[in-house]
What does this fold into?
Amino acid sequence: MSAPTAPVQTAKVPFQAFSQLEIRVGKILTVDDIPTARKPIYRLTIDFGPVGVKQCAGGIKAYYSKEKLVGKLVVAVLNLEPKPIAGVVSECMMLASFTDSDLSLLCPDKVMPLGTSVA
It folds into this structure.
């Protein structure tokens, strides 16, 4: 049995800062390659119901095929500043857990209405 490792120390963020993030459930509608990107990334359109459809540039091509992504529910931050990536303006950021060699998109464990808030 190995000895327990010490917990990693991380910076503390005030709750007010976290509460300013608009995190919602969306459904991936389309997935396209971005051929001008330096690294392999997708351009995704995601439907957030009453909040609208947003565009996202995601570096997840090595982990998900287009077919696995279309129709998938995801969790994303919507109120970050838009960021241009390889000619695509990314309007939101999908959330994922990741290691050096793998990645998993965060998604609700049951079907939730599009645009549902996440806290």
